[in-house]
Amino acid sequence: MELAWATWTALALVLLIITGVLVIGWTHSTSKALDSRGPIGRRWRGGWTIGAWLIPFGNLILPKLVFNEIEKIAQV
Known about the structure:
By secondary structure, the protein is mainly alpha-helical. Helix content is 67%, strand content 0%. The protein contains 3 helices and no strands.
């Protein structure tokens, strides 16, 4: 029973890491694609799409701000 639990936990952790990497990669590539519309009025560009996840305590707020900006620009 413990082995089954450990296996499912390890699988969930691997899937969580893969999902996190894909979300960060998607955010970065989307930000780069939106750069073609011009950087005017952009606050969270390129490096922030990745760095926002790595700043302690900032990673609780900054990724949401990056997502909000990407959504706002994509809807224009």
